[in-house]
Design a protein that fits this description.
This protein folds into two domains: 153 residues, Urease, subunit C, domain 1, CATH 2.30.40; 257 residues, Alpha-Beta Barrel (TIM Barrel), CATH 3.20.20.140. The protein contains 14 helices and 17 strands. Strands 6, 7, 8, 9, 10, 11, 12, 13 and 14 form a nine-stranded parallel sheet that branches. Strands 1-17-16-15-5-2-3-4 form an eight-stranded mixed sheet. Helix 11 crosses helix 14. The longest helix has 16 residues. The protein is globular, with a radius of gyration of 22 Å. The protein binds guanine and zinc ion (ZN). Guanine binds next to helix 1.
Length: 464
């Protein structure tokens, strides 16, 4: 399932590109390698730890994994001399991005006008999700969605499908076929949703157990107990969800929390005994180290202390928070209080699957609160940071021997303005300036190619 993108603005000849894999499964990529070895935090760019810049290096790939990274000038190891070198000089080679919160069916409603969260769900999202009851719609939707992720340089995702078991099954099946690391599970929702989008506690439990049996731990697939959000599950369903998390080792839990002020008030009225919105989940054992909670804008200090103690993460979703007018997430405060934070597109509340665009929006959200988000912190968060918070840093998030070869190759600039600005940044000799310009002006048009487990899954098509 490889595909090509169109890039009407590119005029260069297609870069020399040998066959995707040689028979040994070996590949050699030549370019400038950027990844991270530690959290740069909110340190100023020049003082930020953990930035690993290896210009003019080759990445050796074997059987889907990174075998070595070495200077281009150094001789290749014995047995590698015949492997064609894929020339990406002048391009960035990075770990594929990790999008920790995104909705597969919501490609149908991305960029819908005019409403905040609760109205947006009823007006646009729920009608679109109902269509996924049809297996053909789920299959086609999963394919479209995974191709789209790859065409944005995202190689790992934590995904919401719909309430329908088949929608999760289709995602697992297609990600598995490509050996892609994917975390998903059927959405739990048994109230406050229209007919055709509600399950019941027993059927939902059976569906989850079936999916766990079929997919959890199969290849690179992992199951997530997927509570849509507190208002759409009864207390009984939340209890069942907590039991699933406790019973099945290694499962993740994904949900939404404290995104929108009307939502927070609604949760308080539905769960008057809970101390807070987060507590609705915590008291049923849903918050653990594998918990991924989208948004978390309207949490308090005690909530953040709970997240820190449990090791759960907030999936910060910048473009969604701006588009739905949800609020400004205070990332620096979360960091100071020891809360794990990852980055997410939250499409279709979010307006782009591009993690670069979401980073640019994250910068603006922090700027409005007096904090400056460096490119180092943003890029770390979408690679090694997310991998660590998901417990997957032995597998993904770095260009490092032994890690899976989930990689993206990027052009620094596309179009006249970015090309001009990138030229000045390059001439300055300040790598952070260049990376920040790329993060701020770049998007999926900058993507030259995406590889998962050593196989090309996306390649930019260069038009003459
Ligand atoms: N809260 C509950 N469901 C959703 C959803 O689909 N998107 C967003 N952004 N928030 C939600
Ligand atoms: Zn969401």
């Amino acid at each position: 399932m490889t595909h090509s993108g169109t890039d009407s603005s590119a005029s260069a000849a297609a870069s020399a590109s040998p066959a995707d894999t040689v028979s040994s499964g070996r590949r050699v990529l030549w370019g400038d390698v950027l990844d991270f070895t530690a959290d740069p935090g909110f340190a100023p760019p020049k003082e930020a730890p953990g930035v690993r810049w290896r210009p003019d290096h080759v990445v050796l790939i074997e059987e889907g994994r990174i075998a070595a990274v070495q200077p281009h000038a150094k001789a290749l190891p014995a047995g590698w001399q015949d492997v064609p070198v894929e020339d990406h000089r002048g391009q960035l080679i990075m770990p594929g991005f990790i999008d920790t919160h995104v909705h597969c069916p919501q490609l149908d409603v991305i960029a819908s006008f005019g409403t905040e969260l609760l109205d947006w769900l009823n007006t646009y999202t729920f009608p679109a999700e109902r269509r996924y009851a049809d297996p053909a719609v789920s299959q086609a939707g999963a394919e479209r969605f995974l191709l789209a992720l790859w065409a944005h340089g995202t190689t790992t995702a934590v995904v919401f499908p719909t309430v329908h078991k088949v929608s999760a099954h289709a995602l697992f099946e297609q990600a598995h076929a490509q050996n892609m690391r994917l975390i998903t599970g059927k959405v739990l929702m048994n109230r406050h949703a229209p007919e055709g989008l509600r399950d019941d506690v027993d059927q939902a439990e059976r569906d989850c157990v079936d999916l766990i049996d079929l997919w959890h731990g199969k290849g690179r697939q992992a199951f997530a107990v997927t509570v849509r959000f507190a208002p759409t599950s009864t207390p009984e369903q939340l209890m069942m969800a907590g039991q699933l998390c406790q019973t099945y080792d290694g499962t993740y839990m994904q949900t939404h929390v404290a995104e929108n002020r009307d939502e927070v008030r609604w949760v308080a009225s539905l769960f008057p005994d809970a101390r807070s919105y987060l507590d609705v989940y915590d008291r049923d054992g849903l918050i653990g180290a594998r918990g991924v909670l989208a948004h978390g804008i309207w949490l308090d200090d005690r909530d953040r202390a709970v997240l820190r103690e449990r090791g759960a993460q907030i999936a910060h979703s910048p473009s969604s928070n701006l588009f739905l007018g949800s609020g400004l997430f205070d990332w620096a405060q979360a960091q100071q209080e020891g809360v794990n934070v990852s980055l997410a597109s939250d499409v279709g509340g979010g307006t782009s699957l591009s993690m670069l665009r979401n980073m640019a929006d994250a910068y603006k959200i922090q700027a409005l609160q007096g904090t400056r988000l460096t490119a180092w912190k943003a890029l770390y968060t979408a690679t090694l940071g997310a991998a660590r918070h998901l417990g997957l840093d032995e597998e993904i998030g770095q260009v490092e021997p032994g890690r899976m070869a989930d990689l993206a190759v990027w052009d620094w600039a596309v179009g006249p303005v970015a090309t001009h600005r990138d030229g000045l940044a390059q001439a300055s000799g300040d790598l952070h300036e260049r990376a920040f310009v790329w993060m701020t002006l770049g998007d999926e048009r900058n993507l030259a190619g995406t590889m998962i487990a050593g196989q090309t899954v996306y390649k930019k098509r260069i038009t003459a």
